[in-house]
Design a protein that fits this description.
Length: 399
């Protein structure tokens, strides 16, 4: 596969002009909406019912997802004028990874539910822009397939720590060999949350061997099966099911990871100051403030509400990242202003993927980057370092 040249930094806003020029002089309009907050509605129309149920809804009553979105609306950007916005460069380096803007693609499993090319389409789109892609343990494609599709672009690996340590070690080795530079350990999913949309359909893709490609290509995993997967696929799925809920993990297990992973390690799913401090005390390099997009604990604190106190408590010791509810460039500015070094984009990527494969992901990332660039420029925060708390005000009208 030939790689497109990564986009040069600082010109993401040009995407807007390109759209206008296409519309006015070539009678071409974007196939997907440029309103990323509305993309979900378009995706709902094309996702198969089981895929829709897995991707879109959240745990329980959906209160955590609603809280995630509402939290963004309680902050307003305070535009500043006459500060110059010609010299715009969003590029940054996070945990040793250079990126064109403080944006990564969040780890999301089972992407073939959204599109047959799944993670391969996503990583190609991200790689073409130089946006780091985070590979889920529960992906429908293996480390090696994703690495081949992503070429030399930056990529991180998200670990769900399997109960079998040999499999865990094998995953770490394969990830390293495949060029994944940062390890993201997700802590908020020792077991799946209560997800009525899936439960009502009795649908869990992994039990059909979808979303367990890393396992089904793993020598340590395969060595434990009595028969090859082709001969007894059900037994392979059940063996996976013994590994995935890992209730036994504790802070005392982290040195094992440090011993076997020589790059940066980030803990994902942190929502409390206490846990963020524990992460720093245990020598971790960063945290992702996240509630898994509301897919785990119903009625949980909004991730954005947790961010400022965590950034204050540990931001000078470790790297604070953020996800859960980011839909627009303005959301990204708010998260950066509240202390995140970078944000991870979740569901909108899958909506783009569902609607138009690699092109759809490309559309979503370009729109987000352009809106981020323009929002920073319009609000006078371009070229002034990261936006800060002073760049925001609490909403006064309650709307
Ligand atoms: C996820 N997420 C996730 N997180 C993770 O650490 N490993 C995983 O395998 C997955 N899988 C996954 C699948 C799907 C379909 C979704 C929507 C999400 C959570 C993801 O990384 C991120 O935390 C949330 O998507 C952020 O919330 P929003 O912005 O998508 O609402």
């Amino acid at each position: 596969m030939t790689q497109e040249q990564p986009q040069s930094p600082g010109n993401f806003g040009d995407h807007q002009l390109g759209i206008y020029l296409n519309g006015m002089f070539a009678d071409l309009t974007p196939e997907l909406t440029t309103d990323l907050a509305a993309l979900e509605d378009q995706a709902r129309a094309v996702l198969a019912p089981e895929a829709l149920g897995y991707v879109v809804p959240s745990a329980g009553s959906g209160a955590t997802h609603r809280a995630n979105r509402a939290a963004f609306d309680r902050w307003r950007i305070v535009p500043r004028m006459l500060r110059g916005s010609a010299d715009r460069d969003l590029s940054c380096t996070v945990l040793g990874t250079p990126m064109p803007a403080p944006l990564l693609v969040a780890p999301m499993g089972v992407q073939t539910l959204a599109h047959p090319e799944g993670e391969l389409a996503t990583v190609r789109a991200a790689a073409a822009l130089g946006v780091p892609y985070v590979h889920s343990t529960q992906a429908s494609h293996s480390f090696e397939q994703v690495a081949e599709a992503g070429g030399g672009a930056p990529r991180w690996y998200q670990l769900y720590w399997p109960t079998d340590r040999e499999v865990c070690l094998s995953f770490l080795e394969r990830a390293k060999a495949s060029g994944f530079s940062v390890l993201v350990l997700t802590l908020d999913t020792p077991v799946l949350g209560w997800r009525p949309a899936d439960l009502d359909r009795g649908f869990l893709p992994f039990l059909r061997n979808v979303g367990i490609a890393n396992y089904l290509t793993d020598p340590a995993f395969l060595a434990k099966l009595a028969k090859p997967v082709e001969e007894d696929p059900g037994a392979a799925a059940l063996h996976w099911a013994q590994m995935f809920p890992n209730h036994g993990l504790s802070w005392g297990d982290l040195p094992f990871l440090r011993e076997h992973w020589d790059g940066p390690i980030v803990l994902k799913g942190i929502c409390s100051v206490e846990d963020a401090r524990l992460a720093a005390d245990h020598g971790m390099d960063g945290v992702v403030v996240s509630n898994h997009g509301g897919r785990q604990v119903d009625g949980a604190i909004a991730a954005l509400d947790a961010l400022p106190a965590i950034a204050d408590a540990v931001g000078d010791r470790i790297t604070v990242l953020f996800d859960s509810g980011v839909r627009t460039g303005a959301d990204t500015v708010k998260a950066l202003a509240l202390g995140a070094r970078a944000v991870l984009l979740g569901r909108p990527v899958l909506y783009g993927l569902a609607l138009a494969g690699q092109q759809g992901v490309d559309h979503v990332l370009r729109c987000l980057l352009a809106e981020l660039d323009l929002t920073l420029a319009l609000s006078g925060h371009a070229g002034h370092g990261r936006p800060t708390r002073e760049s925001l005000a609490a909403a006064q009208d309650g709307s």
